[in-house]
Design goal:
254 residues, alpha/beta, four-stranded mixed β-sheet, 10 helices, elongated
Amino acid sequence: MRILTLARDLARRKERQREGLFVVEGIRACEELARSPLEVVGVLAAPQLRETDRGRALCEALVARGTLVTDVTDREFQSAAETESPQGVLAVARIPAYALDAPIVVGQATVRLLVLDAVQDPGNVGTLIRTAAALGADAVVALPGTVDLWNAKVVRSSMGAHFHFPAVHSSWEALQHACATHDVALWGAELGGTDVALLHPPARCALAVGNEGSGLSPHVRAALAQRVTLPISSRAESLNVAVAAGILLHQLRP
């Protein structure tokens, strides 16, 4: 049963990169996937899925778009699922071929990118993607050291934002080149920076947020055109990276 074996293998980042595929678990996420333009390679359905109207409707929607739905036993399903309660459905989909330059097209008056510099927590990364999409950013760019954007936990935390919104991995050199070529200023979230409320961002701007523990990498920090910060109460040491990025993106909207 190829789709079952494939789903098991895709738990490993190397296999996701080699196959160009990723896994989506849960009814809500799979419903969103079924409405998206992404190619769905196949779906595994445990017996419980067809016991509810919602589950049956999902199967019908997937079949209607030409997706093969394979019924498996509970034991087989659990061997491929990563979550404890995946609701009896797991899909394998193709990773979209987003290009780094795509959201920075020449002639686009305003640009907002969210750059993730070695952000390692999957829940944070998924929330960052969801937040960037909700606040009108053009793309999320993940630099080396950031968790795989197509990790199952990241996909789950993004609540389907992955399926409609550009999120790409990039080398630092490629991002620098794209920003320089397309006149995009690189700003970074840092303690000790200028209060974001006092600034007027350029029309074309990328906001970099750093690792949860150590902040921005030295080479990223050195390249910043502007360091920005959010003043917070002295009773708090810091903000969660996803919370901080959400507030900053809202403040930096064009």
